[in-house]
Amino acid sequence: MQNLSDQTIALVKATVPALEAHGLDIVQEMYARMFQNPAIRDLFNQSHHGDAGSQPRALTAAILAYASNIDNLGALAPAVERIAQKHVGLQILPEHYPYVAEALLGAIKAVLGDAATEEVLAAWGEAYWFLANILIAREGRIYDDLASAEGGWTGWRSFEVEEVRRESAIITSFVLQTADGRPVVKHRPGQYLTFWFEIPGHPPVKRNYSISDAPNGRTYRISVKREPHGLASGWLHDEAQPGTLLKVAPPAGEFFLAEHPERPVVLLSGGVGLTPMVSMLETIARQHPQVPVHFAHGTLDGSTHAMGRHVRTLVGNQPGGKSTFFYQSPRAEDVQGRDYDVAGLIDGDWLVANTPITEADYFLCGPRPFLRNLVSALSLTGVPSDRIHYEFFGPADELLAA
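Request: output the structure for the sequence above.
Response:
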């Protein structure tokens, strides 16, 4: 692959001020153009394109980061891997990239007007395809690995709900097996599945749900929070039952437990963010009993607390295992020492006082404020970035303040 020309690098970097001022307008125009084609629109998770506009903001930040670092692309390697994994989950293929190129360049011209000269558009075209070819190559390797693995597949595979289990007032687990009864590829603990839902009266709906159990080669378990006004989560809670068929893409995601953990592990979660953590905890309990693990979880109260007994049992059987449950607003019937351990929120002071801050790997998943606070706290305490791993449920490229 040829490197970008010096002229292209200079022209793209020169557009950074325009992107800072008009980037969101460009991205919104790009999506409007792309979504005129229903086949392209249906590739995306439309819940990230609603009133909150989290995906357009995320892509705006990603484009700005690309333009700013176009002469130092090594800095973008983690972001490239995140995007590639999301694309594999959504089943983005090489033939989809030209639609994005056409929409992006058209949007730049429409928003910037005369400032988008032919030279600027040509530079952005070259820059786009340089990055696109990196992504296509990486995604191709991921697709090949998934297809060749035992139990692996490509595209959308038919799964059947085997079991439905209520975990709390708002979270329900669904155990899934293949409709043909054949094995499934073993996921990396922390990864997610992408689902294609066909809900009557709506266009196709795509959603990602973390796998909440350890890999076993036969089934996957997802544990889904009923979101207010959530189309997919509401349908799952109300309609899915044993025998319901679902279309599922292979496991994906760059957030996962190391195959051979070498340090103590601290699993930090808020709300439904516990789902990938339970997968990691089960895996540590089954495969790495020598690894000290501390599971700390925060939720509103006992009504929203999922899998508490299961977690207590796992850590109780683990040498060096600990669990700490935080309830933000305990109810009268919630008993401290039985149902929860601490009233309030997980914070940096508690982490310093109660976890092996100088040696542990920290895995975090939860709402954005939860992550922003704790990732910042860990960083300020001196925990190096290679020991802080986090996942959140939203667009792949939205950056945390930390």
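Residues 6-148 form a domain with the Globin-like fold (CATH 1.10.490.10).
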